[in-house]
């Protein structure tokens, strides 16, 4: 398992009975997590202190209870700064477990010894975009939500990266890749973090089980002749790490590289357990020259 264990501003304090107790900077949140099906004893002295608690409804969705939580605040990861705010369906605007991947590909970019063009699809609030740009890459950031792209731009400003070569695009990721094929554009690295289900800006339906392999196949056509890496993330329980590995390996076998896939996770301070947070598939070139 690949661990995001270099955080200072974020911590999973404990998790039990379908919930996780987290520290986001100076604030404590309790949020549901479907992976937490175990029932370990809760230290109520810790669980009682909270600034926000998301309660899932049996009818679907849920709602927040807030206790002295600001509308927006910031946390830092190394030199990156993220603006957080709780919004519908329990999210805060950041997936901390992805720091394990940020560290991995940042090192690849820094060691490449050449300009690196990165395409970040389903780019959300820009965690991977900022990490890649800070490492020295030029990045094309694509997401179907105008609000998320705006949020990512705010994160870039807060991180001191507003002058970096980042192209911000509100677009359907599949249609964007199809156009890039027609235009003959190529990228040295591709990152994608597709949702299980979603809609494009014009109502285009995305279902990961049906759409992910065709998209990987299309993305392979816009890789440069000397690609550096390809990263795909999945939070869909039906897609095991080996499935991600097989899809990438099948489409990238003409390149000289190595394929690996693992679960990603976060350490839990109180119990010493590891909280699983989905899976990642990584392809990397044997040589960064």
Q: What's the helix and strand layout?
A:
Elements: E1 2-3, E2 10-16, E3 19-24, E4 27-32, H1 44-47, E5 52-56, E6 62-66, E7 73-77, E8 80-84, H2 99-111, E9 117-121, H3 127-134, E10 138-143, H4 146-158, E11 166-170, H5 173-183, E12 189-192, E13 197-199, E14 205-207, H6 208-220, E15 229-234, H7 241-251, E16 257-267, E17 274-285
Parallel strand pairs: 1-16, 4-5, 9-10, 9-12, 10-11, 12-15
Antiparallel strand pairs: 2-3, 3-4, 5-6, 7-8, 13-14, 15-17, 16-17
Largest sheet: 8 strands, mixed
Q: Give the full name of the CATH homologous superfamily of the largest domain.
A: Vaccinia Virus protein VP39
Order of helices and strands: EEEEHEEEEHEHEHEHEEEHEHEE
The outline comes out as globular
Rounded average pLDDT = 94
Count of helical stretches: 7
CATH T-level fold name of the largest domain: Rossmann fold
pLDDT < 50 runs, ≥5 residues? none
Give the quaternary arrangement of the chains. single chain
Determine the structural class based on helices, strands and strand pairing.
Answer: alpha/beta
Q: How far apart, in Å, are the first and last alpha carbons?
A: 28 Å
Strand tally is: 17
| CATH architectural grouping of the largest domain | 3-Layer(aba) Sandwich
Instruction: Tell me the fraction of residues in β-strands, as a range.
Output: 25-35%
| Top-tier CATH class of the largest domain | Alpha Beta
Radius of gyration: 19 Å
Number of domains: 2
Helix content: 25-40%
**Which sequence of strands runs across the widest sheet?**
1-16-17-15-12-9-10-11
């Amino acid at each position: 398992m690949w661990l995001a264990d270099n955080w200072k501003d974020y911590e999973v304090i404990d998790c039990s009975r379908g919930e996780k107790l987290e520290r986001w900077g100076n604030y404590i949140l309790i949020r549901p997590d479907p992976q937490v099906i175990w029932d370990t004893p809760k230290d109520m002295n810790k669980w009682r202190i909270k600034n926000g608690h998301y309660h899932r409804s049996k009818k679907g969705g849920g709602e927040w209870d807030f206790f002295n939580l600001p509308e927006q605040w910031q946390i830092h990861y190394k030199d990156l700064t993220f603006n957080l705010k709780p919004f519908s369906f329990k999210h805060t605007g950041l997936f901390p477990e992805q720091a394990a991947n940020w560290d991995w590909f940042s090192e690849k970019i820094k060691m490449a010894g050449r300009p690196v063009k990165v395409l970040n699809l389903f780019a959300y609030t820009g965690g991977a975009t900022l990490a890649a740009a800070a490492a020295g890459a030029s990045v094309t950031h694509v997401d179907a939500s105008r609000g998320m792209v705006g949020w990512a731009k705010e994160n870039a400003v807060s991180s001191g990266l507003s002058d970096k070569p980042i192209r911000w695009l509100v677009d359907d990721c599949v249609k964007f890749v199809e156009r890039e094929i027609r235009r003959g554009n190529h990228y040295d690295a591709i990152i994608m973090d597709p949702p299980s289900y979603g809609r494009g800006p014009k109502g285009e339906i995305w279902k990961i089980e049906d759409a992910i392999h065709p998209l990987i196949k299309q993305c392979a056509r816009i890789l440069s002749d000397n690609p550096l890496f390809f990263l795909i993330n999945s939070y869909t329980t039906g897609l095991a790490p080996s499935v991600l590995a097989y899809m990438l390996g099948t489409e990238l076998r003409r390149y000289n590289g190595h394929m690996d896939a693992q679960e990603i996770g976060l350490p839990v301070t109180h119990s010493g357990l590891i909280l699983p947070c989905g899976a990642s598939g990584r392809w990397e070139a044997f040589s960064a020259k």
